[in-house]
Design a protein that fits this description.
single chain; 170 residues; mainly beta; Pnp Oxidase, Chain A; 7-stranded antiparallel beta sheet; 3-stranded antiparallel beta sheet; 3 helices; 12% helix; binds flavin mononucleotide
């Protein structure tokens, strides 16, 4: 007999570990402040949402110092990291004001900074921010994008970064 799922006392550390069983890629989301300063952060909550219109989503922590910058921006960028961009992943996951200093970027048409040599890059128009608990779900319409076929992505699984060689199952 199937056990009913009962409400539980949430151990947030344990729940984070359970969520971490879902292996993901890693991306840097980026935008500009009203003064034109580039800001960005590492995320693994990226998801494709819709083909028509083309749309993607990611989740933004309410406590982020860049919450207002992302929620109010008209555009944001998404750069999907390659296996050799671990240092960028760690840099953009650490709070500091000058995360982009010395980082090779290609500005999108809207001016959002996109990471050079990313596996894929998306320039998005911000459509909606949906509040959900301690995060907001940001949805963007993909205005432009580019991607590379020959590459190995950076992966995040059970709390650790991986640069595993992929073995396609046929
Ligand atoms: C692999 C990885 C994935 C992350 N995913 C997210 C995410 O999806 N959303 C989020 O708000 N923070 C995420 N973080 C945490 C942010 O990168 C981190 O809090 C960063 O300092 C945020 O930038 P800020 O301090 O400028 O807000 C992730 C961190 C790592 C290392």
């Amino acid at each position: 007999m199937t056990q009913a799922l009962l409400p539980i006392e949430i151990d947030s550390r344990d729940l984070r570990q359970a969520f971490g069983c879902f292996a993901t890629g890693v991306a840097i989301v980026s935008t500009q402040t009203p003064e034109g300063r580039p800001v960005g952060m590492t995320v693994n909550s990226l998801a494709s949402v819709s083909m028509s219109p083309p749309a993607l989503s990611w989740c933004l922590r309410n406590e982020s110092p860049n919450y207002d910058n992302f929620v109010r921006a008209r555009y944001f960028g998404v750069s999907v990291l390659a296996h050799d961009q671990e240092a960028l992943c760690r840099r953009f996951a650490t709070p500091r004001d000058d995360k982009f200093a010395g980082v090779a970027v290609t500005p999108g048409e809207s001016g959002v900074p996109l990471i050079t040599s990313a596996v894929a890059a998306f320039e998005c128009e911000h459509l909606e921010a949906i509040a959900c608990g301690d995060h907001a779900i940001l949805i963007g319409r993909v205005a432009r994008y580019a991607w590379r076929r020959q590459c190995t992505p950076l992966l995040f699984f059970q709390g650790a970064l991986h640069a595993a060689e992929l073995r396609p199952l046929r």
